[in-house]
User: Fold this.
Amino acid sequence: MTAADQLDFMGDGAAVFRDVVGQAELARLRSLDNRNYAEKPGARSFSPSEEISGLIGPDGSIGMLAASLCGRPCRAVRIIIFDKTADTNWAVGWHQDRTIAVTEMADLPGFRSWNVKDGICHVEPPEDILARMLTLRLHLDDCGADNGALRILPGTHRLGRVTAADALKLGGEREAVNCEAAAGDVLAMRLLTLHASARAANPSRRRVLHVDYSPDTLPAPLQWAI
Assistant:
């Protein structure tokens, strides 16, 4: 048993779930990946394939896990495909995921830091929306500690928004957990959980299907991009 297996989602803001997706389905998902992401660490997807839609929807294994962890019905609201290889061997420091993808910009209280990524509007919503969101990361390949596994700081989802300076400080003060995973495993975490990823010391392909979920309907006229 690894340290990641001892994580508690409710208390720590993250947990690893083993063997969520079987090998046959993983093979189908890998076969969909014909793009080269060498120019950037991840690719955002707002028109998922039928296979991915079924997997992350309310009747799919990822969607059902999300609803169980959320404690109520929720929907997939953002998809990112990460593909870490020897040629795209990036590192990311301690941070929170704090933006959402929407169909259009609107001047509403609490929504700030608007920008456009890949032609889609992104914004940082009020903290209560972020606090109810969660991320599920399906590993399409094995990912050990030497292959850029995500590291998390347990319990930091309860701190609210954390500045970059405080995130760096917390990373030096608290004990991090390496979330090693095998293909088919899912790392679930609250959006506000501080996490980081080091460069792979022994890089091999590490594909991850990253899906954000929310139980909320956004205030009009905002709508989720998916």
Helices lie at 9-12, 23-31, 50-56, 61-70, 127-132, 164-173. The longest strand covers residues 75-84. The two ends are 37 Å apart (CA to CA). The chain has a mean pLDDT of 90.
